[in-house]
Every structure is written in structure tokens, then in C-alpha cells.
Amino acid sequence: MTAAAPRPWPAPIRALGHAHFRRYFAGQAVSILGSWIQQVAMAWLVYRLTGSAALLGVTAFAALIPQLLVGPFAGAWVDKHDKRRALLWVQALLTVQALALAALTWLGWVSPWLLVAMSGLLGVLNSFDTPLRQSLIGSFVGRREDLPNALALNAMLFNSGRFIGPPIAGALLAALSEAACFALNALTFLALIIAVASIRMPAPPKAQGSMGDVFREGVSYAWHTWLVRLLIFTLIALNLTASAYVVLLPVFARDVFAGDARTLGWLWGAAGCGAFVSTLYLATRQSMPGLVRSIIFGAALSALALLVFGLTAWLPLALAAMAALGFGISVSNVGINMLLQSTAPDRLRGRVVSFFTSARFGFDALGGLLAGLLATVLGAGWTLALEGVLLLGFVLFLLSRRRALRQAIDRHDPTAH
To answer: What is d(CA 417, CA 46) in angstroms, rounded to the nearest whole number?
Structure first.
């Protein structure tokens, strides 16, 4: 059975005209909200138990570094298997992980290093979950020209959860406990499991050959395609620097702004608000070359926002900087994902997505670890200011390659011919 023909929907949400994508979208909306609630609760629990910025960095590193180490191989595995069935199994395992974390926390059996281990397990599962979800989106919409819009809407879900989830987490932490947040996250995975299980469609074509051959084919494509290589280097630079702010937010909330879990929720929510606005903007983009300006602008805005946030002690200005930072990081990351998936051959999509997630989250992990360690020496504010300066340097490099980048994208853009 093939995907139902799309009904005419407004251009900014045209991908929702596909019935399969609508089901996925609804389940994903609930699941992402729970994931953000758990992420905030985990960060607060670690800092409450230890008061250590360095351990915040270690915990974030453990949750994200599997994306760098396991992610590229996971992409080859994804392309060789039935993606829909595999996604259901991974979601079930994520549910078990969240339930175990809730039970251990409620019983008082958690320790800092147990939390690091649980974060590492989550990272391994996410190394498979992310490329599975992302590479299935093309199958859910069925039409290649609607894929960029579907990716933008999917990112909008992620960022709306990032906007709504942290304040909810802050309220739950104040009223209940971290264990309640983890248990709620476990329940939200059921929404995506039910949605994906209800979709009936042919399995996408599987890659042929050994795991080694499939992996090498993907690496060869990414390395020898100049456009892909430059976009991945941009991901590395952006997430090694700008995305590291997440690790230090509990430090700013408690020590710089003299706040509590609610303050942390509002800081995180402000960044999520900016990111949500960026995906509304990207959902209206229908030409790939126009994304180049957005990606470069997003990186520049991120650098300036890091400088402002790192050097201010006034909470209203810090919230505005967080919103700008969320917008900048998201518009660059999501724009790059749209370009990579729109130009990738269908048979390589799982591997291309895995390279994206490896650079996006793996170097986010390395950046968070580095930021946590630097903050113990320089302080949280000066650490972010330094990273802002480094990112500005990379933006200047991007500007020097802007014309070549736009020409390379134009050759792949089906709307340009």
C-alpha cells in the first residue's frame, strides 16, 4: 500500500497533507515534549547532587558522545534493515530506560556516576533512534519536493518541545521530583510507538552488501562530495562552540542569576522559543539556495548571542540572548539537515542522516565537556564569550566560501531548473 495522496494544505505546512506524516507528527509531538522534560530534570539532578559544572559536562558528554562514535555505523545498519520495525524496537528500549531511571531516582539509589552511565545508555539508543526517525520522514511524505518542509516541521516539533518542556519541567521539579519527570517521559514514548505501529506502508529499499561495504560507500560519498563535506564541517564548528551553552545553564541559573529550577526552565525555554521561531521561518523556505544565507546568518547570530549571554548578569537581557542563540543554532542546524537530505540519493539517506547526527550531537558532546572543564578555570561567562569569538572566526571563513556553496546547492536544487 502506498502513501495516500496529499490533500492541498497551505505551503508552510504542506507536508501535513500526507496521512502517514500526520500520524508520525502527532506521536512525535508528545514524545519530544517528554524527552525535553527528562533532559532538564537530569541536568538539575546532577547539579543538585554535586554542584559541579565539570560533572554537568561529563553527563552531557556521556549522553551525546555515542552519536559520534556509534552514529556513523548506526546509519549503515539503518540502511540495511526495515526502518519502521527497527524504530518501534528502539522506542520500546527508550521507554525501559526512562522507567528504570525513574525507579532508581524514586528509590534514592542514584549516584552521579550511575547518572552518567544512564546518560551513556540513552546516547547509544539515540544513535539509532535519530537516523531511523529522520530517514523515515521521506517515506512518510512520499514526495521528494515535500521533504524539506517535512524536515522543517519535524524540527518545529523538536523546538516547540524545547520551548514548552523546560518550563513544565521546572514546575514539576518544584512541585514533585526528578523521578516524576522521568516517569512522565516514559509514558510519552507510547504516543510515537502507537503512531508508527498504525502506519502501513512498504518497507523502504534496503542497502545491499556487508556492513563494511555499506559503511564505506557512505563515507566515500560524504568525503568526496564537497557540499556535504563543507556542511558537516559547519555543523562541527557550530556545535562544538554554540551548543555548549546547554551544559552551563544550571550554573547560570543558580550562581549568576541567583535562581532555582524555575529560572533554569525559563532560560532553557527562551532558547527553545527562539529555536521554534526559526523553524516557522524555515517551513516557508521552498528554494534551497536561499538557505545558505540563513545558515551563515544563524552562525553569526549564535556567536554574538554567546558573547552577550556570557558577559551579562541582567536576567532580561540574558533571556533575550538565549532566544537569539536558540534561533541561530536551530536555523543553521535544521537548514543544513534540509540541504543534506534534499541532495542525498535515497539509497544513502540513512547514512547521510547518521553523519549529520554524528556531527551535530557528537561535537555538541565534545563541546559540552570542554565547556564544563573550561568553566572550572575561566568561569561560565568567560567560557561562553571565548566560544563566541571562535565561532565568529569560522563565520568569516564561511563568508569567503558563500558563492561556491550557493553554486553547489543550485546544481542540486530541483526548483532551480
So the answer is: 53
- Residue 105 CA to residue 41 CA, distance in Å, equals 11
In angstroms, how far is the first alpha carbon of the chain from the final one? 32
Per-residue three-class SS string for 201-241: CCCCCCCCCCHHHHHHHHHHHHHHCHHHHHHHHHHHHHHHH
- Classify burial at 87, counting beta carbons within 10 Å of its beta carbon; exposed 0-12, middle 13-18, buried 19 or more: buried
Beta-carbon contacts of 357 under 8 Å, excluding residues fewer than 6 positions away, are 67, 71, 127, 130, 131, 134
Delineate the domains of the chain, giving CATH numbers in brackets. 11-416 (1.20.1250.20)
The Cβ of residue 412 has, within 10 Å, a number of other Cβ atoms equal to 15
Rounded Cα distance between 182 and 344, Å, is: 36
Q: Are 181 and 108 in contact (CB under 8 A)?
A: no
Report the C-alpha gap between 288 and 283 in whole angstroms.
12
pTM (two decimals): 0.78
pLDDT, tens digit only, all 417 positions of the chain = 444 554 577 767 777 788 888 898 899 888 988 888 888 888 888 878 887 767 777 787 788 778 777 878 887 787 777 788 888 999 999 999 999 999 998 888 888 888 888 888 888 898 888 888 887 887 788 777 778 778 888 888 887 777 777 778 878 887 778 888 899 999 999 999 999 888 877 766 666 777 778 888 888 888 888 888 999 999 999 999 998 788 888 888 888 887 777 788 788 778 878 888 888 888 776 566 678 888 999 999 999 999 999 998 898 999 999 999 999 999 999 899 888 887 877 777 778 888 888 888 878 878 887 888 888 898 888 999 999 999 999 999 998 888 887 777 766 554 443
The residue written with cell numbers 524545547 in the block is 162
Could you tell me the three cell numbers for 54?
Answer: 565539570
Using CA atoms, how far residue 41 sits from 38, 268, 323, in Å, is 5, 12, 21
H/E segment holding residue 416: none
